[in-house]
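Run folding on both entries below.
>entry_1
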Amino acid sequence: MRISAAAIALLLTSTAAIAADLAPAPVEPVAPVVLPFSWTGFYAGANVGYAFGGRDTVGIHNPTFIGDIGKLTGKGFLGGLQAGYNYQFDNIVVGIETDFQGAQIKDTVHGVVAGAPGRARSDIKWYGTLRPRIGYAYDRFLIYATGGLAYGNIDYKLSYNGASFSDSNTKVGWTAGAGVEYAFTDNISGRIEYQYVNFGSYTVRGGGTLNSKASPDFHAVRLGVNYKF
């Protein structure tokens, strides 16, 4: 049987069209899903900073007020560790943080009160805080406020008119501040934070009825780095 060239061409064309219809469609590449950054989780880190600007007025009482020797404006370096937990919902971040700082925040003041020389010295050797945080997150950028409990060891020494007295104990007070933090990776973030720390007011007693009112406080700026687990 003789098949014409036209019939053969038609048969080949039809076969190619059917094969093209049966071939699988090309698969389009799927873009990777990028999840938004979350601040939720435990973290720990370290910090260094500088304290300044305290206004601890040293007054002499015997037992009533005689006069002020001057102001102790403690300043010095500090450094320590911090750890905490954050929870993020929408753009709001809430959490709690504790830290412990070694410090050399000290000052000495001299003065004359009622014609007699006086000298006072304070030295904050270490302190710590426990405080909640609340902030607003713009993806990897976080701005926050914080405040809560502060405690620390204050070594306080004073002499007046030949009498000397001292106090070196752990005091409890409060702190408040704010900061900004940026997550460079999913685990590593850096921050800068301001704190005001106040240990309240207490009496340091000397011989007889002599005493002084201490009110240690300071401002601090700290740079820190955290690792989020």
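>entry_2
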Amino acid sequence: MSWLIPEKKRNIPGKRWLSICLRTLHLIGIAGLSGAFLFDLPMSAWHSYLVLTLLSGGLMVLKELYSDGIWLMQLRGQIIMLKIVLLALAWFYWEAYDLWIYMLSIVLSGIISHGPGKLRYYSLWHGKVYTRDVMQGRPLGKVKDSGESE
């Protein structure tokens, strides 16, 4: 195993509450950022929400990577990386960046955050549900659905 994908998931004290707080801040940022797309507000009205969105989103990615890098091999991590690319396009091509791409990133978030475990833990690279059990050569165990506690 490597540093990115340890043999066992790394524990983060207070991980559940950290996740809740970061997600809440992220939702506040996304809501404020929508002013740029839905109401054509000046940058001064939504720029701080962009910063909040980027910081909270970045911290959520770092938390997932530290906890267990297998996340990158699963659709849940790959969709988030796609969202980052889509939102980066907004930074470099603001005039060409359209409302539908912003909405697409929200739709992708909703699907991957609340979708069934067999979708969230699917790996495009492996062509199957890919969990730590599968990675270590064991049969696929129960796949946790969204909202289930660990």
